[in-house]
Amino acid sequence: MVNKFEIPQEYSSQLRVVEPRDRRTNDEIIKTLMDPKPVTSEKNLWAFWDKGVESMPEWCQRNVASWVRLLGPSWSVRVLDVVPRSPNHALRWIDSSLLPEAFVKGTMDGPWTGPHSADLLRGAALFTYGGAWMDVGCILVRPFDRIFWKQLEDPSTPYLVAAPWLFDCMMANHFVAARKGNPFIKAWHDLFVHFWRGRTNNEGIGHEPLIKFCETMGFDGYASAGFIWDMKVDGFTLNQYASQVLAWWRLCIINGGEKEGEFDYADYAEKHILWIEGFKEMYGAQVVVGMEGKDLWDAFNTRLDADPKSEEYQRAHKMVWGMLTKCCWQKVSHAKELTTYPDLGMLWSMKPGTDNAPGTFTELLRYGAEHFEQVREEVLIKDYKKPTTVMTKGLYEP
């Protein structure tokens, strides 16, 4: 097999060359996703794009097609939507009783209807069918079977859920995985839907009594974990936008109270969730370059034939080869109306083709994700411990 790119000597002990599992083109794969098959196992990868998979930006379509190739035939990828009469329409797959009225009736409004629609479907899909949920902005580098699924399906391990750990009890909801019918996922979903009762957008959710801590949370926790953005909004608005992760946080700090039928959510989070190190495993580009979208865009679009001694080349080289050797995937954000600058996802959407431009480090990343395999056997796992102070409260108890 002739390789388009060679593994540098400095990384040769960390990567090996592999044959792609699926040689179909991106267009061929996207076309098959328009005809989804019935669920036959728990190895499902769920995602969402409101206008349908064929309407996703090109870079997101490349992401999803790469998922299919990298995961292989044992996994089924489905991208749900809200397109009338679409075979992928969310309500064909998710029972309407699990969703708030605003989603079912199509009355959601505000600047973030897409992300919040995905939030409302995430837990419902995992509880109903099992598998994983991933945002379409993620570039997968390592197969799921070598990240979390072997642990989740192995009865000798305690793990039944997997999620990225950021700081304290904060997870990143761009990815989450679980076995079918998981009670923690059901409680998480139910609590989030509870926040949406009587609402058509997220305005005011941050004042919900059950997540009162949102009002004073700010940016400090994110900054401590390496997430230092130039924000357009204040801390309250950011955390209210991400209220689904605050629902998760609440579960991690309550023991279910004293009523019959509740269970200890905080204890469950410690013992049964596989907490994957979020920043190092999923934000490898930002670890090297920082959070600003233009800096990331410049680094990814550095030419492979640039002066190898130049600062820009060395930065891009370290970034991409670091991602290929040490990351599970790369999360690329749109951050619409959240940051003062366009994030990388916005720039790739505005400049089609720059996520895979020939002769650049983006082309190397796309190629390497499917043709190189990490030698390391394990990914970085957080030794998560529940808070020393846990509240004796039920799921809906203020």
TrEMBL record:
InterPro entries in the record: AfumC-like_glycosyl_Trfase (IPR008441), Nucleotide-diphossugar_trans (IPR029044)
N-terminal signal peptide: none
Gene3D superfamilies reported for this sequence: 3.90.550.20
Pfam families: Caps_synth (PF05704)
GO MF annotations, alphabetized: glycosyltransferase activity
Protein name, per record: Capsule polysaccharide biosynthesis protein
Organism the protein comes from: Drechslerella dactyloides (Nematode-trapping fungus)
Lineage start: Eukaryota, Fungi, Dikarya, Ascomycota, Pezizomycotina
